[in-house]
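Field: COMPLEX_INPUT
Field: COMPONENT_COUNT = two
Field: RESIDUE_TOTAL = 290
Field: MODE = joint
Values follow.
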Amino acid sequence: MEIGLNHYLVLSTILFAIGLIGVMRRKNLLLLFFATEILLNSVNIAFAAISHYYGDLTGQMFAFFVIAIAASEVAVGLGLLIVWHKRHGNIDLETMTSMRG
Amino acid sequence: MFEAIAFYLFSFLTITMFFIAVTTSQALYALTALAAGMIFISAFFFILGADFLGAIQIVVYSGAVMALYAFGMMFFDTTRDVKEKQGNKFIVVCMGVLAAVLVVVIFAAPIVGDNIVALYPMTEGAGNTQEVGMVLFTKYLVPFEVAAVMLLVAMIAGIVLAGKKMDISLTLTSDDKIKEDENNKKVLL
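Field: COMPLEX_OUTPUT
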């Protein structure tokens, strides 16, 4: 039973779908951040698998940059979230609709 | 054979963990399940021969990012149950699956079109870490430096946003007091 590139792509798709469902159903902003981490990780798996099966290092390089972006996103996002929580006492998405469109 | 067993075992564990992280109503369960899922994902990188990426995954995600989340959760009220959006479940699932299929098409289109050429092929007789170093510090040197500057900016932003006036609870002080402090430039808001 040989594990091919398609196996990894299917796994990446399943994880991406889980992350997207999380993004759409979460209301708490902290748990919304968790769902975005799942999205980024699922794409990293696809990059690493393609990099392995085509003998090319570019996929791994992009995975590194994705990890760097995820780390800085967490730092800035949590900082903003802490400021918001200090000011308003909750981090629910509903309370942030200050722009009525 | 071992590769197949490892792949199916870890894919089952990863999907289960991420499913728990997305569906649970307890923030602490979500955090632990997410940390476990991150570690299981690094197993895929080790199977695929990307040893350095797997090590980075454990260090950065399970170490730094999860510690940062755990630190952030100390500020929030995490003991109460998380309220969820009461939307149409059918639409949510449909859109999630549709977008995921779109991602597969994006990834698979160059493969089907036979359009992938190895730009930086693996060198013979060098370990994965050596290869990564050679490519990262020659072809991707400028993006690497830009990423370093981005991380520095993010660090300063985190310090400025979260670190200022940590001893003052803004939820317990009155609005008038906060307005006054804002005018005196004491609180960054």
